[in-house]
Amino acid sequence: MTFFLGNYGNIRLRRGTDAQLGVISSAVQLDDVNVNLNRVGIDAAIENIFTGDRVDIETTDARGLEFIPGTNWSSGNVEDTFSAFVNVNAAGGLRLFDTFTAAVNNERSDEIALQTFVGDPIEVTLKVRDVSYNILGNVTNYEFNTSRDSIDVTSLQDKFKHQYNAGLLSGSGRIECGFDYTTTGITESPLLMLQLIQRLDLGSAFDIALYLTDQEVDPDVENIFYQTAAVVTNTGISIEAQNYISCTVDFVTTGEIQLVIGKPSDYILKEDDDRIRVEQGLDYLLQEVTD
Amino acid sequence: MAFYTGRTGSLKIEDKEIAKIRDWSIETTVELLSTRTIDSVASTFVPGISGATGSATLMYYRLEAGETGANVGDFTEILHKIQKEKTGTQGGAVKESDRVKMKLKLADNVEDTIVFFAYITSATVSTSTGELAVIPINFTVDGPLEQRIASLP
User: Fold this and answer.
1) What are phi and psi of A135, to 5 degrees?
2) 3-state DSSP call for residue B144?
3) Quick check: A264 and A224 in contact, CB under 8 A?
4) Nearest by CB: B7 against A151, A159, A164
5) How many Cβ contacts (< 8 angstroms) between chains A and B?
6) B6-17 tens-digit pLDDT
7) What is the ipTM of this complex?
8) Which of A190, A204, A274, B101 qualifies as a FRET site for A243, CA 20 to 30 Å off?
9) CB contact under 8 A, A149 and B6
10) What residues of chain B have any CB closer than 8 angstroms to a CB in chain A?
11) How wide is the angle at C-alpha A188 spanned by C-alphas A244 and A201, nearest 5°?
């Protein structure tokens, strides 16, 4: 038997979630677009969108997302949906980027330029839909509990208690991490965990993969992780004179909980012949399982 | 055996034992007719009509192979005495023929069995997340008890 230490595992999280998240709606007016700063103001963004989020912007306006130049689409024309990573400033203005790293570091050389438009305001909807998991940095401790509801099915004449064997499954957990608001774009900063509970309209759901053992940490171990969607229920911070600032985040699961053994964290199973819309490089798409 | 528990309890309808009963209860009451007069200093009564009502909780349970038999029934034996569906130009009515002979047993002894005729007066079919589907029923006894709890010989 082998004992595994805590440093074999880590936490990966994905900001968007397959579980239904809310949508925020806004009308983008000409004054909301600043072509010098390349920022666009969206109502309710400051309470719901955080730097590093990957957002889907959609409109049903016949003009499409006219404040974004057509060169940003492969067709060369302005279309009605667009996905980008965002950097949010103190006033709630969104600057759009192609990569998470550029967004969190606010690299202006990589920003997506905006353009003015004429006519009525463009009605848009925004939702957070991240596609890849990032490692959460500065995690010192996490715990995760799963439980199954017990449903008593004991009836008269039974000599022993009987329990229904397929009660509802749920999970809850706690993450403790050292506070940090900086990130190079490789890892998620712990600040995000404090921010998630603040999403007023979109909700605080996120996808999480809790690794017991991670092949990226040690190539000789299997990937063993719990994968689920979670909702932040409590956050706490501790500030002591003689210690670093620490954060505590409590969450509960929503929906399916999987204990995955041996598979890469981003594996895709596809059995039909439909086209796949690839949003990242092919090396992300091709994940091989050797057995 | 001095004490009784649910381990030995059961409920029968028309001599068919109903599977998966969670509990049953029966309450017997008597009306008291007051014989107070204006010079009475204390209440006095004479007994009037007695009656009984009861309830049971059935589990929504389908008998599996090996559990079926002529003397075994499921919740539909009781439910269909009150839950009716339309048949032809009539139907949907609860009739006198839906009166059932019930046996409530605390144990297999005759002395631990209550027998009576009753009408099923309510049945609630319900289900909710994380809970077992159950059917609470109520019944009212029609006429006197055919057999009551008795002392052991």
Assistant:
1) -70, 135
2) coil
3) no
4) A159
5) 35
6) 999 999 999 899
7) 0.76
8) A204
9) no
10) 6-11, 19-24, 59, 129-132
11) 105
Q: Model's pTM, two decimal places?
A: 0.74
User: CB B21 to CB A156 under 8 A?
Assistant: yes
Residue B74 Ramachandran class (φ > 0 left, ψ -120 to 50 alpha, else beta) = beta
A266-289 core/surface letters (b: 16 or more CB in 10 A; e: else) = eeeeeeeeeeeeeeeeeeeeeeee
Q: Which of A91, A107, A88 is nearest to A15 (CA)?
A: A88
Residue of B nearest to A148 (CA): B130
The residue of chain B with its CA nearest to that of A154 is B22
What tokens were used for A192?
């995000």
Q: How large is the average pLDDT for residues A12-21?
A: 72
C-alpha–C-alpha distance, residues A43 and B41, integer Å: 80
Q: Which H/E stretch holds residue B47? A: strand B45-59
Contacts of B131 in chain A (CB under 8 A): 151
Task: Tokens 């029609």: give the residue.
Answer: B142
Note the pLDDT tens digit of each residue in B61-81: 999 888 888 899 999 999 999
Among B110, B59, B74, which residue's Cα sits nearest to residue A164?
B59
Q: What per-residue confidence (pLDDT) applies to B88?
A: 74
Which of the residues B7, B17, B60, B104 would you substitute to probe the A interface, choosing the one with the greatest number of A C-beta atoms within 10 Å?
B7
Report which of B11, B13, B16 is spatially closest to residue B26, judged by C-alpha positions: B11
- Taking chain B (153 residues) in runs of 10, the rounded mean pLDDT of each run is 86 93 96 94 95 96 88 93 84 89 93 96 93 95 95 83
* Residues of chain B contacting residue A154, judged by C-beta atoms under 8 Å apart: 22
Cβ pair B63, B92 in contact under 8 A: no
pLDDT tens digits, A75-119: 999 999 999 999 998 888 999 999 988 998 899 999 999 999 989
Cα nearest neighbour of B61 on chain A? A153
pLDDT tens for A135-156 read 898 899 999 999 998 889 999 9
